[in-house]
Amino acid sequence: MIKKQYVVFGIGRFGSALCKSLSEMGHEVLAVDSGEERIRNITPYVTQALQMDATDEEALHTLGVRNFDAVVVSIGDNLRDSIMVTLLCKDMGARYLVAKATDEVHARMLKKMGADRVVFPERDMGVRVAKTLVSPRLLDLINLTGDYMMADIAVPASWTGHTLKELDIRKRYNVSVLVVHREGDVLMNLTTDTQFLKGDDLLIVGHRNDIERIEALQ
After folding, report:
1. Residue 38, SS3?
2. What pLDDT does residue 137 have?
Protein backbone atom coordinates (compact mmCIF):
# COMPACT_ATOMS: atom_id res chain seq x y z
CA MET A 1 0.00 0.00 0.00
CA ILE A 2 1.22 3.48 -0.84
CA LYS A 3 1.37 5.52 2.36
CA LYS A 4 -0.02 9.04 2.00
CA GLN A 5 0.05 12.11 4.21
CA TYR A 6 -3.03 14.03 5.29
CA VAL A 7 -3.70 17.06 7.49
CA VAL A 8 -7.13 17.46 9.07
CA PHE A 9 -8.27 20.79 10.52
CA GLY A 10 -11.11 20.54 13.03
CA ILE A 11 -11.34 17.40 15.16
CA GLY A 12 -15.06 17.18 15.87
CA ARG A 13 -17.07 14.01 15.29
CA PHE A 14 -16.45 13.95 11.55
CA GLY A 15 -12.81 15.04 11.74
CA SER A 16 -12.06 12.56 14.51
CA ALA A 17 -13.65 9.63 12.64
CA LEU A 18 -11.80 10.64 9.47
CA CYS A 19 -8.44 10.79 11.26
CA LYS A 20 -8.93 7.38 12.86
CA SER A 21 -10.00 5.77 9.60
CA LEU A 22 -7.06 7.18 7.64
CA SER A 23 -4.64 6.04 10.37
CA GLU A 24 -6.16 2.55 10.46
CA MET A 25 -5.59 2.36 6.71
CA GLY A 26 -1.88 2.93 7.32
CA HIS A 27 -1.57 6.57 6.30
CA GLU A 28 0.14 9.43 8.14
CA VAL A 29 -2.24 11.95 9.68
CA LEU A 30 -1.64 15.36 11.23
CA ALA A 31 -4.64 16.44 13.32
CA VAL A 32 -5.01 20.17 14.04
CA ASP A 33 -7.51 21.79 16.39
CA SER A 34 -7.59 24.76 18.75
CA GLY A 35 -9.17 22.71 21.54
CA GLU A 36 -6.86 21.10 24.07
CA GLU A 37 -9.27 18.27 24.95
CA ARG A 38 -9.90 17.34 21.33
CA ILE A 39 -6.19 17.17 20.63
CA ARG A 40 -5.61 15.08 23.74
CA ASN A 41 -8.32 12.64 22.70
CA ILE A 42 -7.11 12.18 19.12
CA THR A 43 -3.37 11.99 19.89
CA PRO A 44 -3.24 8.17 20.39
CA TYR A 45 -4.75 7.57 16.96
CA VAL A 46 -2.72 9.81 14.65
CA THR A 47 0.86 10.40 13.60
CA GLN A 48 0.87 13.86 15.16
CA ALA A 49 -1.70 16.09 16.85
CA LEU A 50 -1.18 19.83 17.12
CA GLN A 51 -3.11 22.41 19.13
CA MET A 52 -3.11 25.68 17.22
CA ASP A 53 -5.33 28.36 15.71
CA ALA A 54 -5.43 27.43 12.02
CA THR A 55 -6.58 30.95 11.09
CA ASP A 56 -3.19 32.26 12.24
CA GLU A 57 -1.51 32.63 8.86
CA GLU A 58 2.03 32.60 10.26
CA ALA A 59 1.42 29.46 12.32
CA LEU A 60 -0.39 27.76 9.42
CA HIS A 61 2.52 28.47 7.10
CA THR A 62 4.87 26.42 9.31
CA LEU A 63 2.86 23.25 8.58
CA GLY A 64 3.80 23.20 4.91
CA VAL A 65 0.34 22.21 3.67
CA ARG A 66 1.64 21.99 0.11
CA ASN A 67 3.58 18.87 1.11
CA PHE A 68 0.48 16.85 2.07
CA ASP A 69 -1.39 14.63 -0.37
CA ALA A 70 -4.64 16.18 0.79
CA VAL A 71 -5.94 18.79 3.22
CA VAL A 72 -9.29 18.37 4.97
CA VAL A 73 -11.02 21.39 6.53
CA SER A 74 -13.53 19.86 8.92
CA ILE A 75 -14.45 23.05 10.76
CA GLY A 76 -18.22 23.03 10.72
CA ASP A 77 -19.25 25.13 13.72
CA ASN A 78 -17.50 28.35 12.69
CA LEU A 79 -18.17 29.42 9.10
CA ARG A 80 -15.66 32.26 9.22
CA ASP A 81 -12.83 30.00 10.33
CA SER A 82 -13.82 27.30 7.85
CA ILE A 83 -13.74 29.72 4.94
CA MET A 84 -10.54 31.44 6.08
CA VAL A 85 -8.59 28.20 6.58
CA THR A 86 -9.74 26.96 3.17
CA LEU A 87 -8.57 30.18 1.50
CA LEU A 88 -5.23 30.24 3.33
CA CYS A 89 -4.47 26.59 2.58
CA LYS A 90 -5.17 27.03 -1.14
CA ASP A 91 -3.08 30.20 -1.21
CA MET A 92 -0.25 28.20 0.39
CA GLY A 93 -0.38 25.60 -2.37
CA ALA A 94 -2.55 22.81 -0.97
CA ARG A 95 -2.68 20.16 -3.72
CA TYR A 96 -6.15 18.83 -2.99
CA LEU A 97 -8.52 20.28 -0.43
CA VAL A 98 -11.73 18.76 0.89
CA ALA A 99 -13.95 21.00 3.00
CA LYS A 100 -16.94 20.18 5.19
CA ALA A 101 -20.04 22.32 4.64
CA THR A 102 -23.10 22.80 6.80
CA ASP A 103 -25.44 24.03 4.04
CA GLU A 104 -25.52 25.03 0.37
CA VAL A 105 -24.55 28.67 1.03
CA HIS A 106 -21.53 27.54 3.02
CA ALA A 107 -20.65 25.12 0.22
CA ARG A 108 -20.73 27.85 -2.43
CA MET A 109 -18.43 30.02 -0.35
CA LEU A 110 -15.98 27.15 0.15
CA LYS A 111 -15.90 26.45 -3.59
CA LYS A 112 -15.22 30.13 -4.29
CA MET A 113 -12.33 29.94 -1.84
CA GLY A 114 -10.83 27.13 -3.92
CA ALA A 115 -12.04 23.91 -2.26
CA ASP A 116 -11.59 21.02 -4.69
CA ARG A 117 -14.40 19.06 -3.08
CA VAL A 118 -17.14 19.95 -0.61
CA VAL A 119 -18.82 17.30 1.52
CA PHE A 120 -21.97 17.22 3.64
CA PRO A 121 -21.29 14.36 6.12
CA GLU A 122 -24.68 14.41 7.84
CA ARG A 123 -26.68 14.78 4.63
CA ASP A 124 -24.63 12.21 2.73
CA MET A 125 -25.02 9.67 5.52
CA GLY A 126 -28.76 10.26 5.54
CA VAL A 127 -28.95 9.67 1.79
CA ARG A 128 -26.89 6.49 2.11
CA VAL A 129 -29.04 5.11 4.91
CA ALA A 130 -32.19 5.89 2.92
CA LYS A 131 -30.87 3.97 -0.06
CA THR A 132 -29.96 0.96 2.07
CA LEU A 133 -33.46 0.94 3.57
CA VAL A 134 -34.93 0.69 0.09
CA SER A 135 -32.26 -1.74 -1.15
CA PRO A 136 -30.72 -3.60 1.83
CA ARG A 137 -28.16 -5.38 -0.36
CA LEU A 138 -26.61 -2.04 -1.33
CA LEU A 139 -24.88 -1.70 2.03
CA ASP A 140 -23.35 -5.18 1.69
CA LEU A 141 -22.14 -4.28 -1.77
CA ILE A 142 -20.46 -1.08 -0.59
CA ASN A 143 -18.85 -2.50 2.54
CA LEU A 144 -18.25 -6.03 1.23
CA THR A 145 -16.01 -7.90 3.66
CA GLY A 146 -12.62 -7.29 5.18
CA ASP A 147 -10.61 -4.81 3.10
CA TYR A 148 -12.68 -5.22 -0.06
CA MET A 149 -14.46 -2.13 -1.26
CA MET A 150 -16.01 -0.23 -4.15
CA ALA A 151 -14.47 2.99 -5.39
CA ASP A 152 -15.19 5.68 -7.96
CA ILE A 153 -11.92 6.72 -9.64
CA ALA A 154 -10.83 8.74 -12.65
CA VAL A 155 -9.49 6.59 -15.45
CA PRO A 156 -5.66 6.54 -15.31
CA ALA A 157 -4.03 8.35 -18.22
CA SER A 158 -2.16 5.18 -19.20
CA TRP A 159 -5.49 3.39 -19.70
CA THR A 160 -7.08 5.88 -22.09
CA GLY A 161 -7.41 4.65 -25.64
CA HIS A 162 -7.15 1.02 -24.55
CA THR A 163 -9.82 -1.65 -24.17
CA LEU A 164 -10.60 -3.91 -21.23
CA LYS A 165 -9.11 -6.80 -23.19
CA GLU A 166 -5.88 -4.95 -23.94
CA LEU A 167 -5.42 -3.85 -20.33
CA ASP A 168 -6.43 -7.25 -18.87
CA ILE A 169 -7.42 -5.40 -15.71
CA ARG A 170 -8.72 -8.36 -13.71
CA LYS A 171 -5.50 -10.32 -14.12
CA ARG A 172 -3.03 -7.44 -13.85
CA TYR A 173 -4.71 -5.37 -11.14
CA ASN A 174 -7.05 -7.86 -9.36
CA VAL A 175 -10.07 -5.54 -9.66
CA SER A 176 -13.25 -5.52 -11.71
CA VAL A 177 -14.67 -2.52 -13.57
CA LEU A 178 -18.43 -2.42 -13.01
CA VAL A 179 -19.51 0.88 -14.56
CA VAL A 180 -18.06 3.63 -16.74
CA HIS A 181 -19.38 7.19 -16.26
CA ARG A 182 -18.85 9.17 -19.47
CA GLU A 183 -20.10 12.73 -20.07
CA GLY A 184 -23.36 12.20 -18.24
CA ASP A 185 -23.89 8.68 -19.58
CA VAL A 186 -23.59 5.46 -17.60
CA LEU A 187 -22.10 2.46 -19.41
CA MET A 188 -23.03 -0.75 -17.62
CA ASN A 189 -22.94 -3.47 -20.28
CA LEU A 190 -19.16 -3.55 -20.58
CA THR A 191 -17.41 -5.96 -22.94
CA THR A 192 -13.79 -6.81 -23.63
CA ASP A 193 -13.95 -4.26 -26.48
CA THR A 194 -15.05 -1.39 -24.21
CA GLN A 195 -12.49 1.37 -24.67
CA PHE A 196 -11.61 3.92 -22.00
CA LEU A 197 -11.59 7.59 -22.95
CA LYS A 198 -10.08 10.64 -21.31
CA GLY A 199 -12.47 12.01 -18.68
CA ASP A 200 -14.08 8.64 -17.87
CA ASP A 201 -14.88 7.82 -14.25
CA LEU A 202 -14.84 4.16 -13.27
CA LEU A 203 -16.71 2.30 -10.56
CA ILE A 204 -14.44 -0.57 -9.56
CA VAL A 205 -14.48 -3.28 -6.91
CA GLY A 206 -11.52 -5.04 -5.34
CA HIS A 207 -9.12 -5.16 -2.41
CA ARG A 208 -8.25 -1.80 -0.89
CA ASN A 209 -4.54 -2.23 -1.66
CA ASP A 210 -5.19 -3.00 -5.32
CA ILE A 211 -7.50 0.01 -5.66
CA GLU A 212 -4.90 2.28 -4.08
CA ARG A 213 -2.31 0.91 -6.51
CA ILE A 214 -4.55 1.97 -9.41
CA GLU A 215 -5.13 5.42 -7.87
CA ALA A 216 -1.36 5.85 -7.76
CA LEU A 217 -1.31 5.65 -11.57
CA GLN A 218 -3.09 9.03 -11.78
Report:
1. helix
2. 46
Strand partners, 6: 29, 70
pTM for the model stands at: 0.66
Other beta carbons within 10 Å of 175: 21
Q: How is 75-107 classified by DSSP, letter by letter? A: --S-HHHHHHHHHHHHHTT-SSEEEE-SSHHHH
Domain membership flag for residue 128? no
d(CA 15, CA 145): 25
Q: Long-range contacts: 50-55, Cβ < 8 Å, 24+?
A: 54/9, 54/10, 54/81, 54/85, 54/88, 55/81, 55/84, 55/85, 55/88
What CATH code is carried by the domain that includes residue 102?
3.40.50.720
- Please name the residues in contact with 97: beta carbons below 8 A apart, sequence gap of 6 or more: 70, 71, 72, 73, 86, 89, 90, 114, 115, 116, 117
DSSP, res 216: T
Please indicate, yes or no, if residue 129 is contained in any of the structural domains.
Answer: no
Question: Which CATH number characterizes residue 171's domain?
Answer: 3.30.70.1450
pLDDT, tens digit, 9 for 90 and up, residues 40-83: 999 999 999 999 999 999 999 999 999 999 999 999 778 999 99
Give residue-wise pLDDT tens across range 186-196: 888 889 999 99
